[in-house]
Write a structure and sequence with these properties.
232 residues; mainly alpha; Four Helix Bundle (Hemerythrin (Met), subunit A)
Amino acid sequence: MFDLSLRPLKDTVLSPLPPLLPQSLTPNSLTLLAFLSGLLSCLSATCRSPFSLPFWLLNRLLDCLDGAVARHRHSTSELGGFLDLLGDFVVYALVPISVAWGNGNGDEKENVRQWIAIACLEATFWINNFVLFYIAAVAEKWRTNTFLQNRNGDGGGDGSKSGSQELTSVMMKPALIEGFESGLFFTLMLAFPSYLRALSWVMCVGVTIGTAQRVSWFVGALARNEREKRTG
């Protein structure tokens, strides 16, 4: 929800750091360090270690810094983006499970309720990610088709006639739960593990609403595209 509005602030805060880092510290190495610190945070959470939160905050800092360094050095790459997302998805999936593991106690009923909340939360992650990546795949297909039409003289020179522009904005459309909000929920889980079940249900509802928003926008974009193809 706040990712786009917070992006300029994040870039401003991080801008002094990339010039200070040695060239040997590449964006991909920062991504690896972020991933390792995320895993250490999860491992610490399973052991109820107080280091889980510091390792998580280090993960968040490094995760922001790898992209800032790549942009500063003009070395952004598809591989870097892939590794960054892969690390995020693995750590995001493990944080709630790790906190639940470390938060278990002798109350069997309470443990079952906690794991049900975690299972539902993880399920919303899977569904939301499917929606995001399906939209991305269709958006790329539409962009490619528009490019070929423009080269063959079958479409407008700026590609504005196609639905690809609309779908691109849909793909980037803010939803209720995005990166900032996810990071905030995971921080609260690690800082206050006793509230894990309540936080999981709240986040589960938020992710569900965000997914519904994206599905609604996507269905509308598909309908507009179909109308354009019939009338175009």
